[in-house]
């Protein structure tokens, strides 16, 4: 089984101001997350347009199930949450969700560019990114 992994590269430049560096590193993460959520929302909305008529008029159970999955994803994405926060109970729902290949449903690895001295243990800017990720996970 292939593991699809989304790697987010956060560039931590040597800014003159520590405050500016802190804002930039966390802001970069937030911007990337937001852009991926927007792309997923675009994907979901286009799929809803295709499936909605079949689900409402055709009596197609698979289309109805797909529509329900898409609506759950749309609700989460519109609230600023990633697709990975949405859980499905049945195998059929999970299969439909998996087939969408949404960007924000993939595991994420954050990679921070640091100087050599901070490569092993990180630094306060890496800690800030870690804290932002933890905070985001708790809100989801």
Characterise this structure.
Strands 1-2 form a two-stranded parallel sheet. It is built from 4 helices and 2 strands; from the N terminus they run βαααβα. It has helices at 18-57, 61-78, 91-99, 124-139, and strands at 6-11, 108-113. The longest helix has 40 residues, at 18-57. α1 (18-57) packs antiparallel against α2, α1 runs parallel beside α4 (124-139) and α2 (61-78) packs across α3 (91-99). The model is unreliable at 1-5 (pLDDT under 50). With 140 residues, it is mainly alpha-helical.
Strand order of the largest sheet: 1-2
Largest sheet: 2 strands, parallel
Mass-distribution shape: elongated
Q: Treating each run of at least 4 consecutive H or I residues as one helix, how many helices?
A: 4
Structural class call reads mainly alpha
List low-confidence stretches: 1-5
Written as H for each helix and E for each strand, in order along the chain, the element string is EHHHEH
Distance between the termini: 27 Å
SSE blueprint:
Blueprint: E1 6-11, H1 18-57, H2 61-78, H3 91-99, E2 108-113, H4 124-139
């Amino acid at each position: 089984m292939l593991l699809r992994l989304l790697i987010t590269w956060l560039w931590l430049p040597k800014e003159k101001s520590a405050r500016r560096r802190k804002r930039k590193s966390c802001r970069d993460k937030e911007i990337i997350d937001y852009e991926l959520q927007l792309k997923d929302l675009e994907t979901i909305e286009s799929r809803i347009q295709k499936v909605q008529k079949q689900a409402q008029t055709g009596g197609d159970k698979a289309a109805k199930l797909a529509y329900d999955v898409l609506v759950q994803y749309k609700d989460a994405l519109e609230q600023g949450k990633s697709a990975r926060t949405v859980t499905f109970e049945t195998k059929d729902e999970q299969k439909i969700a998996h087939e969408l290949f949404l960007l924000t449903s993939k595991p994420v690895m954050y990679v921070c560019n640091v100087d050599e001295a901070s490569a092993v243990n990180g630094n306060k800017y890496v800690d800030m990114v870690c804290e932002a990720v933890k905070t985001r996970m708790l809100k989801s």
